[in-house]
Amino acid sequence: MAKYIYAEGVNPLTLVFLRNFLALPSLALLAFAGRRKTRKCPLRQILPLAIPAGFGCVLTPLLLFSSYTYIASGTATVFHFIYPCLVLLIGFVFLRKKIAWGTWVSVALCFAGILCFYDPQATLNPTGAALALGSGLAFAIYVVLLPRFQSQSFSGFLFCFYIALWSSIMMLVICLCTNRLALPTTWLGWGLCLLFATLVTTGAVVLFQQGSLWIGGEKTAVLSAIEPITGVVIGILIFRESCKLPVLIGSCLVIASSIIIAVLDIKAKAE
Question: Global pTM?
Answer without folding.
Answer: 0.82
